[in-house]
Amino acid sequence: MRKLDTKLMHPRDQITMIIDKIYRSGLTTTSGGNISIIDENGDIWVTPSAIDKGTLRASDIVCVRKDGTIDGRHKPSSEFPFHKAIYECRPEIKAVIHAHPPALVSLSIVRQIPNTNIIPQAKYICGDIGYADYALPGSDELGEVIAKEFEKGFNGVIMENHGTVVGGTDMVDAYQRFETLEFCCRTIIYGSQIGTPNYLSDEQIEAFESQIPRLLPEMDAVEHPSDERAIREDICKIVHRACDQGLMISSYGTVSVRWRGDDFLITPPQVSRWDIQHEDIVQIKGGKREPGKVPSRSTWLHQEIYKRNPHINSIILTQTPYLMAYSVTNEKLDVRTIPESWIFLQDIPNMPFGSHFAGEEGILNTISKDTPAVLVNNDSVIVTGDKLLGTFDKLEVAEFSAKSLVMGASLGKLVPINDEQVEDLRKKFLS
């Protein structure tokens, strides 16, 4: 597969690609939401009114010319006025997404603004969020109240009793902000069901962002034998699968696989995970990186885990909605829900924020055969294992366990498998 270069895609193709992702991710409905792009001529390409978002084609996209004339088979979205208003007040914004994703709608109807300090990249990607008072959908008044928020510098706005609207420098930037903001809200909501979400200080986020990786030296030359290429294929498949199943979002997630000895392959930063391709993967060999490529900022951690744990051959570092509920509340995730959960995971301890920074020993002293996964507070879950598919299976089991616990929180007190039953499992499956 060749990597998509969205900058060379026609606006109508970008729009159909992204609205399809939004719809299939369950972040909008057949009739809900609208997105647009303004091109270099000042023409605005926008989704049509009253056309099924699940089957939208490039030929359905409408162009509203700079002079106000309309090209297309359909009427432009009824919300076109606020798209136009945003572009007029913020010329650097080139793409706008509006939809009604469940978590963001939840906040809009209780009239709350999400605190994006819940996880580092939410603050970095989304920034502070604006709030637009209710106005009639499709009205010029709605365009005015939204534009006022964007004029203040916000790139994402909660629309009272309506949903959200975000802008970006291009369509991928807007989508990443939209997806990350919805994930941020889900994390807050799910965390509130089991405890009290804790937020990072600006200083903690700055410390995270200032962790510019000490880049490994580059190799003089790189080779890609067949077993190395097979690993690239496996990594891409798992990353795409994780995105499809909601176990990774486009702005966050790292996968690595041991190759030979302590050499390994790892995903890069700043590449949309849903579009990651073989050539994006970075080879780490003999303590050096593949020429011309930058590996994940967590490369040091992966490298040390492999060096100290010969039984570990793959690592997934990601954010999933229900596991992050435990991460942001520092609540203990008791995996003694069903036998499979305990057999696969045994224990998932919470590690302090910052324990994943380069040079820290906490995670390295915790990961073991008996503790294959850890939660890093307000950051991520790290899962280790032998074969990559098995590691992914552990991630799925952990997320399903967390989901069951969050959903059960309103029903009553958790009754876990007891110590005697755990010991029976240990004797049968782990001896």
From TrEMBL:
Species per Swiss-Prot/TrEMBL record: Mangrovibacterium marinum
Molecular function terms, GO-annotated: aldehyde-lyase activity; metal ion binding
Record's keyword terms, sorted: Lyase, Metal-binding
Presence of keyword Metal-binding: yes
Gene3D superfamilies cross-referenced by the UniProt entry: Class II aldolase/adducin N-terminal domain
Protein name (Swiss-Prot/TrEMBL): L-fuculose-phosphate aldolase
Stretches assigned to the Class II aldolase/adducin N-terminal domain: 13-189, 233-406
GO biological process: pentose catabolic process
